[in-house]
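Run folding on both entries below.
>entry_1
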Amino acid sequence: MVPVLFILLLAPYLASSVIDEGGVSILAGTYLFAVLSIAWSLGAIFDDKRKTIALLQDSEGRYRIFSKYSKELVNSFNEVIFQTDHKGKWLYLNPAWKSMSGATVNESLGLHFSKHVDNTSYQDVLKAFAESFEQGKKYFRVDIKLRDAKKGSSWVEAFVKLIYDEAGKFIGTAGILSEINERKHAEEKLVSLNEHLAITSSKLSTAAQLAAGIAHEVRNPMTAILGFVKLIRDGGTDKQEYYDIIFSEINRIEQVLNELLMLSKPSGAVFLEKDLKKSCDHVVTLLETNAVLNNIQIHKNYDAEPIFIYFDENQIKQVLINIIKNSIESMPDGGNIFLSIYEQNREVFVTILDEGEGIPENSLQKVGEPFFTTKSSGTGLGLSVCFKIIEKHGGKVFITSELKKGTKIVCVLPAVQPKNLSGNEKEGERDEMVKPEK
C-alpha cells in the first residue's frame, strides 16, 4: 500500500522531468530507487506490525475468555485453593475458604495461616515443611484441624507445593485444602474400638497371669476353713471363735474373687466420685500374694484419710494392676514396691516405685507407645492402654528410671473436693454423676 502511494505522489514529478529534459536523469533515477526502497521497507514493516497487532488483539481476547472461565472454574471448586508468601501469610484464597473455615477471604488475606489452625496442627505443618525443605522435596501432605469460633473445628487434608524463584530461593507455597471430616470421624471410631479391644484383651491377659496367685490366695483360707470345720466336728470348745475365723476367711475369698471378676468383665466406662485409696487397697489385696510368691513386698505409703477423684474404678484399677505387675516382673530376685498417694494443689499423685532392673535411657521416651516393649514376650499394649486411660481421666503419666536401681511412675489426676457427709452416709451414696471442678 505504501509503495503504491509513493509512486502516485512521485508520478507528476517524474512526468515533468521527462517532459523538461527529454528523459530521466541518473540522479533522478537514483533518488527514485532510494525512495521506492524506503517506501517498500516501511510498507513491509507496517504490514508486519499490523498483523502483529491483529494477533495480539486476538490473543488478548482469547486470554480474557480463558481468564474468565479459569476464574469461574476455580471459584466453583469445593476445595480451597491457596497461596502463601515465604512467611506463611495468605496471598490468595478462593471463595470455598469461607464455607470451610467460617472466615471470609478478605478477613483472612494477609493473616498468617496459624491463626486458623490449632496448635497441634500448626506443629505438624512446621514439622512436615521442615522435613520437605531439608530433603529437597517440593511437595508434602498433612492433616490440619481448622478452628473457628462460629463454625467450630473441622479437619482438612492439605497438599502443599513449595515455590522457589529462578535463583532457587524459597518464596512461598501453593496448594489445595480438602475437607476430611467424615474420614477423621471414621478413624476416631476405629481408634476408640481398638482401644476398647486393647483394654479388654489386657484385662483378660492380666487375669490369666494372676491365676497362680489367686489360686494360692484362695487355697490358704480354704485350708484354714477346713481345719476349723474339723475342729468343730470333733467337738472343739470355743466354737464361736472358730466361726468368726471361718467367716473371716470366706469373706477374704469372696473379696479376691470379686476383684478378679471385676477385672475380667468388659464394661463401658462409668465415671463416679469415689475414694481412690480404697481402690488402691483392693488392687494391693489382689496382687499381694502374687508379689509374695516372687519374694516382693508391697508397701502402702498413705494414711486412711480418703482422697476423692472422679474416675472409672475398673479402669483405674486396670492401670494400677498393669504398673504394679510390671514392677513385679522387673524384680526376678525379689525386692520392694512402694505405693504412695497424696493430694497437692487440687491434684492427686499416685506413685509406684520399684527396685527393678530399670529402663534404658534410649527406650524411656518410647515407653507407652503401642507395641513397644522391653519384655521378650510382651505385646507393648499394657502401658499404652494405661496412658490412654489416665489421659481420658484428665491426667498425665511421668516415668523416670535408672538401670539396676529401679523405675518410678507417677500418675497425676485431678482431685475432687469431698462433700460434707453425715456420719451415717455410706460411700455408695457418694457415687453420683458429679463432674470434677476444673
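>entry_2
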Amino acid sequence: MKPRKARNPMLVFRFMFKSKLLVLLLILCFLDALFTDIGLQLALIQEANPFIRHLYEWHIIAYYLVKLIFPLALMLIYPYIRQKLWVQPCLTLTVIVYAAVNVYHFVWLSYGLTYVAGSA
C-alpha cells in the first residue's frame, strides 16, 4: 500500500475560497450575526437560543466566533468532502436558508429602525 501524500496547508487554504457558495455562506453567517447583534443592541429583538444568548452576554467576540466557526470549519474540510454526492445539494440548501434568514433580519431591522425613528 502506497503511503498517502500530505496536502499542503496553503493549498487547502486557497481552495477554501475557490467555492463561491462557501464564501457566500461565510458572508451570510457573518451578516446573520451582525444583524442579530444590531437588533439586540437596539433592543428590537431577543436572542431565543439560550446558549447563544449566554455567549453574547458573556463576550461579544465569543458570540461572533461561535457564529462563524461552523462555516469556517466547513471551508476547511470542504476540499476533502466535495466529491461526495450529498455535499453540493446540502451546501446549496444551507445558503438558501441563510439567505432567507438574512432577508427576514433585514425586514425586521428596517421595520424596527423605522418604528424607532418615527417614535422619536
